[in-house]
Amino acid sequence: MTKIIKMPVTENTHRITMVMAGDEEGGLEKHVIELSNGLASRGYKVCVIAHEKYKDRLSQSINFTPVDLSKSRRNPIALWQLFTAIKASQPDIL
């Protein structure tokens, strides 16, 4: 049996940033969406960097930054957008 431990959410709550590189409909994407929504509902500061199509599936309390990495992860413009988005989110946990 899994025991759920509720951590107190304080002013010093860590900023959590999650990145999804693809635009597919698989288990990883579902997991990131559910985990992000769950953390946000508990008061954590969550930022998701992903393809635009995922925005509507995330809680409005989540800071969403659209970056399309699905076509080429070697695209220098997309990588620069990703770098800039991560830097702007100032994550404690990435």
From TrEMBL:
Residues 26-94 form the Glycosyltransferase subfamily 4-like N-terminal domain. It holds the Pfam family Glyco_transf_4. One of its GO terms (molecular function) is glycosyltransferase activity. InterPro entries: Glyco_trans_4-like_N. Transmembrane segments: none annotated. This is Glycosyltransferase family 4 protein. The lineage of its organism: Bacteria, Pseudomonadati, Pseudomonadota, Alphaproteobacteria, Hyphomicrobiales.
